[in-house]
């Protein structure tokens, strides 16, 4: 799913000139309800890519390499979830992620707990961040969640930096 920041698409864009009145911007941003946004795993604001940037970019990661990394991460996930009813991180229940045998220690969960306490995350969002964090850990070939995985997952969800 993708959205523009405002009806004209230039609000907050470097070099863009938004012509929308403030009320229109608020109304436009309010079109996506909290419960709907809560079901989205990753929320990122992306900068537009200019033709010059596109021509200068080099592909550091090939499709074949990415496919291999994902296959290896899925294998790690399947091994970690062996003996459970789940095969991939997206299927794991929130309660198991928070309190199960692979639950991260309190020191690792601290940023998540703080975001939940501040109201920046709901419990559903908390669980979604844990799922993304486990996916990042699997891609890093890590057997346990670390604060770096939680930090990257929080950033992907809400732009919250540790």
What is the topological layout?
Blueprint (H helix, E strand, L loop, with lengths): L21 H8 L4 H4 L13 H6 L6 H18 L13 H6 L6 H13 L4 H17 L7 H12 L4
Helix pairs in contact: 4-7, 6-8, 7-8
Describe the structure.
This protein has 162 residues and is mainly alpha-helical. It has a domain at 63-158. Helices cover 52% and strands 0% of the residues. It has 8 helices and no strands. It is globular and about 55 Å long. The two termini are 26 Å apart. The mean pLDDT is 87.
Count up the helices: 8
Report helical residue fraction: 40-55%
Computed over alpha carbons, the radius of gyration is 19 Å
- Beta-strand portion reads under 5%
Looking at this protein, list some descriptive labels.
globular; mainly alpha; about 50% helix; about 160 residues
Give a nutshell description of this structure.
With 162 residues, the chain is mostly helical. The chain has helices at residues 22-29, 34-37, 51-56, 63-80, 94-99, 106-118, 123-139, 147-158.
């Amino acid at each position: 799913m993708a959205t523009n920041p405002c009806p004209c698409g230039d609000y907050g864009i470097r070099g863009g000139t938004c012509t929308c009145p403030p009320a229109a911007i608020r109304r436009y941003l309010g079109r996506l309800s909290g419960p709907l946004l809560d079901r989205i795993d990753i929320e990122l604001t992306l900068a537009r890519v200019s033709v010059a940037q596109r021509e200068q970019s080099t592909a550091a990661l090939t499709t074949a390499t990415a496919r291999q990394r994902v296959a290896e991460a899925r294998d790690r996930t399947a091994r970690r979830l062996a003996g459970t009813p789940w095969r991939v991180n997206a299927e794991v229940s929130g309660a198991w992620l928070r309190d199960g045998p692979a639950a991260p220690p309190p020191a690792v969960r601290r940023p998540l707990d703080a975001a939940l306490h501040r109201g920046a995350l709901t419990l559903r969002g908390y669980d979604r961040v844990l799922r993304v964090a486990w996916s990042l850990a699997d891609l890093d070939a890590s057997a346990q969640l670390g604060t770096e995985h939680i930090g990257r997952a929080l950033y992907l969800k809400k732009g919250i930096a540790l």
